[in-house]
Structures are given as structure tokens and as C-alpha cells.
Amino acid sequence: MPDGLVLAIDQGTSSTKCLLVDRSGTVVASGSAPVPIRYPAPGWVEQDADEILASVLTAARACLDGVPRGAVDAVGLSTQRESAVVWDRRTGRPAGPVLGWQDRRASCADLRTHADEIRRISGLPLDQMFSAAKLRWLLDRTPDAAVGTVDAWLLYALTGRHQIEVGNASRTQLLDVRSGSWSPELLDLFGIPESALPALTPSAGSLGTIGAAGGVLAGLPITAVLGDSHAALYAHGTQVDGGVKVTYGTGSSVMGLVSTVPSDAVCLTVAWGDPGIRLAAEGNIRSTGATVLWLAEFLGVDPARVAELADEASSDGVHLVPAFGGLAAPWWDDSAVGVLSGLTLGTRPAQVARAAIESIAHQVADVVDALGPAGRLLADGGATGNDTLMQIQADLAGVPVRRARTANLSALGAAFLAGGLHPPIEYDDFHPRPGAGAQEARAAWHTAVARARTPSAPHPGS
């Protein structure tokens, strides 16, 4: 086992993965652990902070089994974003549920008249997906508690420091995205005292040494923290110039480095701070992989069977618009509802499965259109192993798709930043096919989206 290794901890919505990476960027060991998700009421999505921490420690133990103690130099952390955590200041113990990024219980309705100001400062449209309303909901029930995002909770639990990485902080809707500092105006609007929030830190540097609570991780320095989508963008390296990154997960993130946001249909966010702020435009899609999981459960089959059914069929005019909790970018329509349209007496599960896969590519193409011209899409995440999806994506977006040959770019990006590594990424290429009927397919999709939206909903970007 070589020395100078970097441990990447990728804490995602449904699992935590750990990768041990050498100086060439090669993965030499791995481990993983699931994280339970609970749905206690319609629109509520909860996790448990202790279970998140336990998954990190379990995955790390599996990854470091048999690795000499002195072989690991640094730890990089990649985390799910927007989810809100609350813990007791005196005991350090969780003081309530983790409100997942998909959770819709915390209303923003009382702030609608301030939506333009909130967007101007934070770079984000007023939406329940972001952390601020969730943090306020938690503080209303646990006054004087400490709050933060998942990265802040893990940094506190592992190192004892109450701090948050600036890119994750930009997803709270409380950060002045251009200055990289907490905004007094936004804190006042959301009713959140700055004293409850973590201190802001850059994405890389001396972010704390893991204490005894970290078990096998004890004594290791954390030298990088990134949101999972930001970490994937970082891992693509020079390929991001002129390209747009798409991370396919439970939801999907479509992101490209910018100096100004191209339209109000997408967000302005901090890609990373090291220590200067680098901005990115991003469109978030709430349900992509989650759509396949939902359909698999609905049909009583394994998710892999949904992909197999989709490979065997055409959608035959069937469209599935997965607005299970409204639609995010580029529509930002909380009132949109899920729609399955185009059904006939001849419709079978295979057609619906194909429509589910196509819904992923259509939603990504919608965000790419909002971001503006792109020379290529850089694809990463678990769903990219589906060749059919990648080809559909190239056809519908009308640009080449470069699929990273590793599906773990969020973890690798954290490792690269933590270790100062810059290895190249290998890709498989998918090119748009002439005569694929993309224009007609896109028009039919937008008709289905219109059915899912309410007549009074704003137009994209409003």
C-alpha cells in the first residue's frame, strides 16, 4: 500500500461512499454504507443526523480495513446539500430530524413579496428546496440550538468546530453569493440569528483534525469540503471550460462555471472558495433517479428492471412529468403536479419505463437550454451507466455527451482538492444522431409539462 493517500468521504442522500485515492488519482480501496430516509407525512423527507454520522464511520472503516495508519495524509469531504440539521449547543447531540433537501414542510409563502431581493442577494429563487426555510422551521421548535447543513454537522461531529464550507453555505439562501459572507438582510428576512449559524470557511485548507469520535479516522486532517455537485464539477478539471456538467443522482445538478448568471431560470451559486469565490450557474432538478425508484416500487420490480424495460420499448407518446414536489429549474413551479399522459389501452409498463428514462433527459435538456450554448455535456453519477439514457440525452440536448468512466466523481473531486491532485478523467462519448426526431420529442415533452403546471404558475425565469 503506497503512502500519501487521500480519503474521500462522499455523504449522499441515500448512502455514504468512501474512496481511498493515490497520488495518480487511482482508487485503491472503497467502502459504503446506506443511509435511511423517512417520509413521515406527504411532502416530508427526513433523515437522522446520528445515522448520517454512523454511515460515514461505517464506510470509512470498510475503506480503511487493512490500510496502514500512516498511509493516509488527508481527508476530503463531499456532501449532500440544502438538507438542514439542528443540534444542541451544550451536548452536541442532534435536537431534531434532518430535513432533507426534498422536504417541503417549511413554507416560504410569507416571503413572496421579498422574492426579488432574496434572488438578488443569494443568487437563488425563493424555494423550499434551499435550507433557509428549513433552518427557520427547526429553530422555531428548538430555540438557541445550533443549525447547519450536512457538511457543517459532520465537521462539528468529527472535529468539534462549528463551521460551514462557503459553497454549501451558498445553498442555504442566507449567503451573499458575491461577497461570500452571511447576508444581514437575508438573516433578518428568514428570522435566523447569525449566532446559530456556523462560521464560514473556504473549500480547502486546514479545516480541522478529526477527534476520537471519528474512530478509525481519528487524527486525520480534513483539508477539503465541497458540496457533492461542486465536487463533481471540480473533478472534471479543464473539461469544464466550454462545457456543462450534469450529475445524475436522486435529483440532478446541471452546472457550469460563469461570471454572471445567464437567466433567472437557473441559480447563481458558489462553486468553491479557495480562498477567492468562483461562481457557477446551476439548474437543479428534483426528481431524476428518484423517478426510476418510484416507478420500480410502483411496478413492484427492481430499479434495474425499469432500465431493462425502457431498453425494450418506445414510449409511444407516453410522457411522465415527475413533479412529485413541484418542478425546480427552469420552471420553479411549486404547484406543478406529477402527470402521466398519452396512455392508451395498449400502454404497458415498458412504455411507462421508457417515458421515465426520457423524463430524465428532457429535464436536463430544459436546464441546458436555460444555461445557454454548451459545447458538450460532462456526465457523471450512477445513472450514467445506462447507455440508452446517455444516447437519449445527446439526442435531446443536441450536443455531445462525455460520460466519465467512473461514476464517483463527487468523491474524486473532494479527494483531488484535498490532496492537490489534478489527474485526467477518461470519458466515453455519445453524439447526437441525425434524424432522431429530437425537435418533435421536445415539443411533445413541453406539452406534457404544460399539463403538469397550473395556469396561474409563472413562466420560466419569472
Description:
- It is a single chain.
- This protein is α/β, with parallel strands linked by helices and about 450 residues long.
- It folds into two domains: about 5-230, Nucleotidyltransferase, domain 5, CATH 3.30.420.40; about 235-450, ATPase, nucleotide binding domain (Nucleotidyltransferase, domain 5).
- It has helices spanning about 50-65, 115-120, 130-140, 150-160, 165-170, 185-190, 230-235, 290-300, 305-310, 350-370, 385-395, 410-420, 440-450, and strands at about 5-10, 15-20, 25-35, 45, 70-80, 85, 100, 145-150, 165, 175, 180, 200, 220-225, 245-250, 250-255, 265-275, 275-285, 320, 340, 375-380, 400-405, 425-430.
- The protein is built from 13 helices and 22 strands.
- The strands form seven sheets. Strands 16-17-15-14-20-21-22 form a seven-stranded mixed β-sheet. Strands 3-2-1-5-13 form a five-stranded mixed β-sheet. A two-stranded antiparallel ribbon has the order 4-7.
- This is ATP:glycerol 3-phosphotransferase.
- Belongs to the FGGY kinase family.
Q: Please count the beta strands (DSSP E, at least 2 residues each).
A: 22
At CATH level 3, the topology of the largest domain is Nucleotidyltransferase, domain 5
C-alpha geometry: globular
**Main pleated-sheet profile:** 7 strands, mixed
Strand order in the largest sheet? 16-17-15-14-20-21-22
Structural class call reads alpha/beta
- The amount of beta strand, in percent, is 15-25%
By DSSP (H or I, 4+ residues per run), the number of helices equals 13
**Class of the largest domain, according to the CATH hierarchy?**
Alpha Beta
Q: State the domain count.
A: 2
Overall residue-averaged pLDDT value: 91
CATH architecture heading of the largest domain: 2-Layer Sandwich
**Mind telling me the C-alpha Rg?**
21 Å
Are there runs of 5+ residues with pLDDT below 50, and where? none
N- to C-terminal distance:
55 Å
The portion of residues assigned to helices is: 25-40%
CATH superfamily of the largest domain: ATPase, nucleotide binding domain
GO biological process, one term: glycerol catabolic process
Organism: Asanoa hainanensis
Protein name: ATP:glycerol 3-phosphotransferase
Keywords: ATP-binding, Kinase, Nucleotide-binding, Transferase
